[in-house]
Amino acid sequence: MSRKAKLEYIWLDGYYPTQNMRSKTKIEDNFSGKLEDCPIWSFDGSSTKQAEGGSSDCLLKPVAIYPDPARKNGFLVMSEVLNPDGTPHETNSRATIDDEDEDFWFGFEQEYFIMDSKTQLPLGFPMGGYPGPQGMYYCSVGGRNTHGRDLVEEHADLCLEAGINFEGINQEVASGQWEFQIFAKGGKKAGDEVWVARYLLDRLTEKYGYYIEYHPKPVKGDWNGSGMHCNFSNTLLRTAGSKEIYDQVCEAFRPVTKEHIEVYGEYNDQRLTGKHETAAITDFSYGVSDRGASIRIPIITVEKGYKGWLEDRRPASNADPYKVAARIIKTVESVKIAVPA
């Protein structure tokens, strides 16, 4: 008797500027579990703003595979969208990443709010009012200030069981706001793992009566917004040993501030105000251990003699990690400095 496997193909749709995840299941007989044995598939692009009805087929090219811990004989198949002729679709941002040697390493800090589907408010927010002010929620413990831990813990377990390089969780500054961290070598792999982790989180909310809000400023007023801080390094940054080199790399971001902001997430102007641990969206700054700067130079990097990484604090929680990685790689590689021997 053949062993039937459930392959959940996941892709990004054509909505602009914020794409959504879509997925559907393909049943395969005697599946090996290997990426190379995942067939190219197709979908109706006219239903996802990726094609016209008269010529609606788009192709799904599997690019990463993970065991699906929530389904029997299940696999999660991250896929790129291709045109019928096999070229990358215009919505395929993964194909724009130029980092085949995986010299760039990325650590994404994904913040988000857990929302109650009935009240459409963040967990901990009462109907018609507000919880206590910010201060006691960050990394809190106990039912007074901590909301949603069951979902967060289950999500962490799912990601670890799926083999995602999941590095941690913590409650964030606002009530009902949380964060998880992903690390990977290579912009494509980092993006794959963030998107699959988001998929597992979104799917998990279906049984809790919650949904995840990735809007960077879902609660107006004196509440922190949500970002997706991007930690990054390449051989140059990991071996520089020089403040001057770090300054040169940071300065390379200044003239392309607009180009970065364009791919750092929709509604980010509501978050990047110069308050709540952000720099203003119109400014560019960098500094050691400065969480109010556009780019933070971590204190550990300095203590190790300027051998480490940088953190771009501007990407919003709803940003596409593929686009963020592609733009950072392009900017850093514009700095023409020989790597120290």
Automatic annotation (TrEMBL):
<keyword id="KW-0067">ATP-binding</keyword>
<dbReference type="GO" id="GO:0005524">
    <property type="term" value="F:ATP binding"/>
</dbReference>
<comment type="function">
    <text>Catalyzes the ATP-dependent biosynthesis of glutamine from glutamate and ammonia.</text>
</comment>
<comment type="similarity">
    <text>Belongs to the glutamine synthetase family.</text>
</comment>
<dbReference type="Pfam" id="PF00120">
    <property type="entry name" value="Gln-synt_C"/>
</dbReference>
<dbReference type="InterPro" id="IPR008146">
    <property type="entry name" value="Gln_synth_cat_dom"/>
</dbReference>
<dbReference type="GO" id="GO:0005737">
    <property type="term" value="C:cytoplasm"/>
</dbReference>
<keyword id="KW-0436">Ligase</keyword>
<dbReference type="InterPro" id="IPR050292">
    <property type="entry name" value="Glutamine_Synthetase"/>
</dbReference>
<dbReference type="Pfam" id="PF03951">
    <property type="entry name" value="Gln-synt_N"/>
</dbReference>
<dbReference type="GO" id="GO:0006542">
    <property type="term" value="P:glutamine biosynthetic process"/>
</dbReference>
<dbReference type="InterPro" id="IPR027303">
    <property type="entry name" value="Gln_synth_gly_rich_site"/>
</dbReference>
<keyword id="KW-0547">Nucleotide-binding</keyword>
<feature type="domain" description="GS beta-grasp">
    <location>
        <begin position="5"/>
        <end position="86"/>
    </location>
</feature>
<dbReference type="InterPro" id="IPR008147">
    <property type="entry name" value="Gln_synt_N"/>
</dbReference>
<comment type="subunit">
    <text>Homooctamer and homotetramer.</text>
</comment>
<dbReference type="GO" id="GO:0004356">
    <property type="term" value="F:glutamine synthetase activity"/>
</dbReference>
<dbReference type="InterPro" id="IPR027302">
    <property type="entry name" value="Gln_synth_N_conserv_site"/>
</dbReference>
<dbReference type="InterPro" id="IPR014746">
    <property type="entry name" value="Gln_synth/guanido_kin_cat_dom"/>
</dbReference>
<keyword id="KW-0963">Cytoplasm</keyword>
<protein>
    <recommendedName>
        <fullName>Glutamine synthetase</fullName>
        <ecNumber>6.3.1.2</ecNumber>
    </recommendedName>
</protein>
<feature type="domain" description="GS catalytic">
    <location>
        <begin position="84"/>
        <end position="341"/>
    </location>
</feature>
<dbReference type="InterPro" id="IPR036651">
    <property type="entry name" value="Gln_synt_N_sf"/>
</dbReference>
